[in-house]
Amino acid sequence: MSVSGSRLPRRLFVLQTLSFVPATAIGFEAVSYLDAFADQSANYVPTFFTDTEWRFVNAFVDRLIPHDDVGPGAVEAGVPIFIDKQMGTKYGYGGLWYMHGPFAENTPPTLGYQLDLTPRQLYQNGIASADHAITQAHGKGLADLDDATKDDVLTAMEAGTLDIGKNPPSNTLFGFFWQNTQEGYFSDPTYGGNRDAAAWSMIGFPGARGDYLEWVDQYGKKYPYAPTTVELAENQG
Amino acid sequence: MNINQKHVDAVIVGSGWTGMIMAKELTEAGLKVLVLERGPARDTYPDGAYPKTMDELAFIQRSRLFQDMSKTTVTIRHGVDDVAVPYRQIGAFKPGTGLGGAGLHWSGQHWRIFPEELQLRSHYEQKYGKSFIPPDMTIADWGVTYDELEPHYTFAEQVFGTAGQAYRVNNQIVGNGDGNVFEANRSAPFPLPAMKNTYSAMIYWKACAENGLHPFSQPSANASTPYTNPYGCQMGPCTFCGFCSGYACFNYSKASPNVNILPALRLSQNFELRTECNVLKINLDNMGKRATGVTYVDKDGNTHFQPADLVIAGTFAYNNAHLLLVSGIGEPYDPKSGKGVVGKNLAYQTMATIQAFFEPGKFTNPFIGAGGNSVTIDDYNGDNFDHGPAGFVGGGPVWCNQAGTKPISGIPVPDGTPKWGSGWKKAVSDSYVNTVSFDIEGSSMAYRQCYLSLDPTYTDSYGQPLLRFTFDWQDNDIKMSRWITNKMIPVAKSMNPKSIKVLVKNFGDHFDTRPYQTTHLAGGTMMGTDPKQSVVNRYLQNWDVSNLFVVGSGVFPQGLGYNPTGTVAALTYWSAKAIRNQYLKNPGPLVSE
Description:
A: mainly alpha; 47% helix; disordered N terminus; B: eight-stranded mixed sheet; six-stranded antiparallel sheet; 14 helices; 22 strands; globular
């Protein structure tokens, strides 16, 4: 096995360049940055989510991990694409879980997930009922709200105070969004998220390098190599 | 279709550490041995091959090597009058399936028990008085001594290629005395030198020493050098890739049944392995006193009867209790009357964690790691401190076990960090390579109201009742965990971090099945000296059915502070020796009732 040499991901390069943009220009920068990525995401045709759902998903995860000068936002990292692809896997169909009834209601949260919904059903039902409740309250759907209002809505969902019914409740839908967003943001890029391993570069995780024997006792030193993905390691191994 | 299989001398249910150790020992004794494994065949290639094994999403979040929850699980409730619900998704613990069992995807922390813990009840009664033990605490002696197990601990370390620094060998202090001062006497040093320590672990070492504690490099079944074990199986040195717990090791560095036993076992003409064969029950004769074999279902749905003279239950921890309960072996435990034994004394572990956060630039590089690699203190473990004024039973090791922190599941963030949004992103970005985290892996005692039984409602894909856990945190264990945590806060502070975060249970907290804690379950088929109080005798032989031996952490009468695998392996070798030297010469009960 060999580990690949230092490869500066294209995205990291862009980030480093942009970090020199003056603070006064950051608002503008964020918009143009997202626009640049809208192109890439526009080329992706979701296989699971409908157009309406896709707008909701993009708006939701964009607020969970927004773009800023620290690192990529969830949308530019490809998190919506990741979630859409996951819905076509065994996981999406609930195939990794014990899904036999009876499904008890009002169980303590400490006993874990007890709904009769696969992730596919949970997103479909949840997005429809959440966007309905949001429209009732604000006159428009999540994707069309301003950022501050979006954040208020997400906060209410996280707390479970936005009433969207019980299949799923809003805090359960929020929990799935947040879990799947972190997964898409930080998993190997092969799954459609973590584009160019930029989220790994941001935190300093070297991915699939696999050999740190010479680094174990180099105490307090920055690890100098850019992340390696499974695909890169396979092609160069 | 029903198929009658050809007779074998011994049938072993499960291919994890216990099943593979037994298979090796019994084939060496000349027996025809068949191992039945419910899951698929697995090995370093392809299941652990680089780079595909370095995939946190597939292996952890999507449970590549863990039990197939769509087929079977357990149900859980907190109290004896509650209704249990299924553990539908992998969370608090990660049972395995497939060849090697959980032994393929464990960490590699390899411990010996403290001698007094094998006589836990009598030790506490003698030293602290009978009334020191809470009335509902059903802790018990194991019925075996450390001196009896010592040779088997030593051999297991040699089979596992365990790296570590001994403190006392044949009653002589060895090395520079920098082993674990609390460790019991050993008949041999570790086969491999201790691993290198990470930066985090050395920061922890220094802080412990400054606080008058006794840090040491903990025993690790991750090879520190190339190694060939007594079976001729080879290991390569660990590269600290950080993908151990939940993964199969691509380097042949982490001990597993697949790497350390199977290559030798496969050479034996006496050994046969059948994967994707799920054992439904142990068959008994008309008197219910003798096992005639087992019934299993293969992957095509055919039902087989497998006759055997000797049956070894070697499934994961609590699953042996399930196997006995569905087979009608032994009296099921009843928490109301306190009678019965099968399912009694379900125990776990009581975790707490302290995280120290530093300014960016510290570079603790937590992606560098190995599952068994750690600097540890045992000052608050076993009976290494005076429990009288502390007022609780038990204890635990405290370790800085940098096992390879992965980004989806593992990034610690300081108190007050927003749960999402830009504030969260800034915190993970600042914290990931600038944190030192250490754990208090506390014991979990046994209680009258914590036990295993068959669920009345839910079934597995074969139509059998699921096993039901009745379990919750108890005040004694929370008190222990909080007491040790309070002792350790000054250690974190003396690292001079920017801030610290303490994750510890509060009194009244309920067992939360969602976040990962440990997979170290104990009890349900406890060993002991009294057939009315235990399922198996001191040789792990069932009291009722003398040609059935039950191996694994289910025989522990209560939960340890340490990880169980070292003691599981030693007990299995101890049991195997009794089978080879005593039972096979004169089949029947090895201990009279």
